[in-house]
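Dear colleagues,

For the upcoming journal club I promised to circulate an example of a predicted protein-ligand complex. I picked one with magnesium ion because it came up in last month's discussion. The inputs are reproduced below in full, followed by the predicted structure.
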Amino acid sequence: WNNFCSSVFILSQYTSSIRDVTFQNYLQNEVRPFIELIDSLRVIGIDKDLNLPSIAVVGDQSSGKSSVLEAISGVALPRGSGIVTRCPLELKLRKKEGKWEGKISYNGHSETFHDPLQVENLVRKAQDTLAGDGVGICHDLITLEISSPDVCDLTLIDLPGITRVPVKGQPDDIGDQIRSLILKYITKEETISLVVVPCNVDIATTEALKMAQEVDPHGSRTLAILTKPDLIDKGAEGDVLKIVQGKVIPLSKGYIIVRCRGQQDINDKISLTEAMQIEKDFFKKHRYFSSLLDEEKATVECLARKLTRDLVAHIKKSLPHLTDQVQSLLSQLQVELKKYKEGPPIDHKMMGPFLSQVIIAFSDQINELARTGESQHKNLFALLRPVFKQWDKYLKTSKLSFKEAVDGMISGYDDLHRGRELLTFSDYSSLESLVKKQVKALEEPAMETLKIIREIIQAEFKNICEMSFDNYPHLRYIVMTMIDDIQLKQEAQVETRIKEFIRMEQLVFTQDSILQQKLRSKLSLKEDLSDDDDDCISSSGCAALDTRSLIPEKIVLYYEIVYQRLSDYVPMLLQIFMLKDAAKMLRDQMMDLRDGANAMKLLSEGTERGRKRVELLQRLQRLKEAQSRICTTF
Ligand code: GDP
Ligand code: MG
């Protein structure tokens, strides 16, 4: 492998061969940019959105897939008899200056290591984790990324080998399971299929070759690799040669024959570098196959070159399709993104201004609600009105019952007091206590009204909060608590005020002129009563002097004033405290929140929607970057 890499990348070492020089130039100018493009697309994660060109290795069990991969990559993979590869293994080879580094990732787990000898164990461990300890298979992908100056940029996928007969412990349909897993990879137009077939079997009837032909009838992305040429039956070499030359099953990409390390070589601890030399010698000395060396149809080195070249050709061919895909994904994304509301910017520096914007928009809405009652469903004042009306109804009922109480008292009055008292003299204090009692009874419905109004306004505030901070659970929680606190505080204030009103009304007081006005209109006292007249009945006739008719009327009229005062003041008080002041308090607190805020924390999105939107935005960014990379490279 090292030889191969040197020949590919370090000009000085292989200047003896003209072909190597040309290949080197070819690599520098033609290959690297494409591989680098695909590599950079992979780095920005575009492979999450679309299929990037890659190479999948398929073949029967023990056909030598892992051995071929190992020879190309220089990385020792788990090998042996029976089912060894049980999960798809993505082998990402990345040429990078510096120390050898491996990184294995699967199922959210990721591990970096620096000893190439660990690969085998870590891959086994990963497979056991994903597919269990037994002999089952699994569709989950293991990704093994190798960064080293000695590899070239290639991504290869090792797949479980095809079996027909389940072994002990395997489900009956294991053959179908493996088939469908392989098909999943080789069906993709972006995949080059490396079909590995050992020379010592009946090549024409190999399952792997048949599958590849099914999904790629023209063989334009299928490359056949013949392994184990050292194990061919004596006398069968001529047939194998015919196959390699494409005379039996023609494939447009053709055949390559390789010799990898056999079990004995591994037992003898033959290194991969030594194995390459052995391979070269093997073909050079071979009676039938030596000619294949010149035809570039033999050795792993040749295979690696061909693969690189094929991959580039494949990338070139895929590019227009890739560009189209990026384009259509981009427009799809933009449509989808429109469905998701505005959200916080990805750039953290923009978080502060964005938070400010969100808070101001919310404050404006609260302000509008307090001013005009404008809200989403119905005008807020339209919601409050029936409650205020209900309060007014309470008062009216109270007025009627007061009148009844007064009448009752008057009719009993004569029985109780006449005889001792003179006509028109009456007990004012009993009337006064009647008013007090009646007014006191208003406290409960007033509190009830307060409670209902508070609930309505609080719900409206919360509704706006809900809509404004839909995507920010943290911020929403803080503002919800704020609304609750403010409403609680204001409710307590209003409660005190209402109690004050009730106490005030228990004074039984009004300015004379107000009562006079009432009396004048009610009793049709046409006489001109000046405002500062002390005695409103001084010039009235006898009827006006009748205690039984006048006193109750007067006191009932006074209660009318109580009714008017309370009917207006309670709703006014409620509007001021529960709506206007509460709105102002909320806005002030929002501004404080904005000024001292940890914008990132407040804007952290928790809802599925928020997550989805971030994901879409990231995809958008990736695709845009991919688009510009593809454009600038070509
Ligand atoms: P896989 O199941 O397709 O991945 O096959 P492996 O790569 O594990 O190879 C199966 C066996 O064949 C291993 O023991 C290898 O050492 C051996 N093998 C692979 N390639 C060759 C070869 O070219 N010559 C010989 N003699 N043995 C080979
Ligand atoms: Mg294998």
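Two points we might discuss: The longest strand covers residues 191-198. Residues 65-66, 84-85 surround magnesium ion (ligand 2) (CB under 6 Å).

See you all on Thursday,
B. R.
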